[in-house]
Q: What sequence folds into this?
């Protein structure tokens, strides 16, 4: 039977619940002081801004964000950049830190528990659908299309999924589907991910995006909370239980991905390692990047500091302020320095004769004269000393900084401070 015609978007009746409590330990020192969703990305944004922007651009006007690990930076960003919701327009934006609301000895013990502990708050909004989102991936997606499939196929849960190389899929929940897109098996992080039928080198991986009818989800969470053997996790417990006992449907990312113009590619990145983070940021310097940050029809909302324009000064031979194949944010000053294929976040300052190449400089990095930085990620506010050379001697770099298998060097202020100790 064909679905009934709709008079208004389903997103009007949905709440987005963003899971943003994870550390992201594979990002090493980048998450020493901030949770992974709060890590900077793309020149002026944070990673969490992508999931939140997708929700807003999809028409969802009720959002809740669950925080836990070192949440101050994240909460401050949310308060500064996401404070435009108005209750009188049936909009809301809740920040839900782990606060021992259910038990004085329990923080959030799993992704499902993070929602369960806030059921009383969520019920007050009387929304019909809950869209559960991971707050630590980079992508553009129209959740309205996923909501429509959920309703049309009368699913108990609809799981967002995408094709990934089988060799790289062991960190995901892997999905087996029938021809009608119902899920017949869900395996959380298998050592040997099963292939997609007909595509032996690919697996169908969960994106950590789930759509539920709200009442059904609350009942499932209460059932799960009463199970002492449960991990209280969506991927390990909730989704496999529904696959066996209910109706679980897969929503393929290709159906709702928001693409750049006529680009057929579907962009999604888990920037969970320093190498992946560095590469995804520098991909934005391509002539036509897969991720379009200039698309005004699907903007990435964030907190925008009031900054002056970027500035380039000095034109002497060997001391020319210039940047090629690079993104340079507001408040940056390139003073007689050379920037090649790099991304400079807000307020970076490069002094005379400095050279940076393949570099990701987070906000307010200061690069002193004659420094040379290649293949680096530099944390916020780091003061690079005069004449420092990184990226030309891997063995020497590894003794002073954090280096990756792919030759990327991560630099933080404590590492710089340790150079003279």
A:
């Amino acid at each position: 039977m064909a679905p009934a015609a709709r008079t208004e978007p389903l997103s009007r009746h949905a709440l987005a619940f963003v899971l943003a409590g994870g550390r992201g330990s594979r990002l090493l020192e980048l998450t020493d002081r901030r949770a992974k969703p709060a890590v900077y990305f793309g020149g002026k944004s944070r990673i969490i801004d992508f999931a939140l922007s997708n929700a807003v651009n999809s028409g969802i006007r009720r959002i809740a964000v669950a925080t836990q690990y070192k949440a101050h930076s994240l909460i401050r960003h949310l308060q500064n950049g996401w404070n435009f919701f108005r209750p009188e327009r049936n909009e809301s934006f809740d920040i839900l830190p782990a606060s021992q609301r259910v038990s004085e000895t329990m923080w959030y013990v799993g992704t499902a528990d993070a929602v369960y502990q806030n059921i009383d708050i969520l019920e007050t909004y009387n929304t019909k659908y809950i869209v559960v989102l991971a707050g630590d991936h980079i992508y553009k997606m129209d959740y309205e299309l996923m909501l429509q499939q959920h309703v049309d196929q009368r699913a108990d849960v609809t799981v967002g999924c995408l094709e990934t190389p089988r060799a790289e899929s062991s960190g995901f929940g892997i999905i087996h589907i029938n021809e009608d897109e119902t899920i017949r098996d869900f395996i959380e992080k298998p050592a040997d991910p099963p292939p997609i039928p007909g595509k032996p080198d690919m697996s169908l991986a969960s994106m950590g995006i789930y759509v539920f009818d709200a009442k059904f989800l609350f009942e499932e969470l209460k059932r799960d909370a009463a199970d002492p053997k449960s991990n209280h996790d969506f991927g390990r417990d909730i989704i496999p239980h529904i696959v066996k006992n209910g109706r679980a449907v897969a929503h393929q990312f290709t159906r709702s991905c928001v693409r750049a113009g006529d680009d057929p590619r579907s962009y999604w990145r888990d920037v969970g390692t320093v190498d992946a983070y560095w590469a995804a940021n520098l991909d934005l310097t391509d002539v036509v990047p897969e991720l379009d940050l200039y698309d005004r029809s699907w903007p990435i909302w964030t907190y925008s500091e009031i900054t002056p324009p970027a500035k380039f000064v000095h034109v002497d031979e060997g001391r020319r302020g210039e940047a090629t194949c690079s993104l340079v944010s507001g408040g940056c000053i390139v003073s007689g320095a050379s920037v090649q294929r790099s991304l400079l976040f807000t307020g970076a300052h490069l002094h005379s004769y400095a050279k940076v190449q393949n570099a990701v400089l987070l906000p307010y990095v200061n690069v002193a004269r004659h420094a040379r930085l290649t293949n680096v990620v530099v944390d916020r506010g780091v003061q690079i000393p005069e004449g420092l050379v990184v990226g030309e001697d891997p063995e020497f770099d590894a003794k002073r900084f954090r280096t990756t298998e792919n030759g990327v060097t991560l630099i933080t202020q404590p590492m710089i401070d340790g150079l003279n100790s």
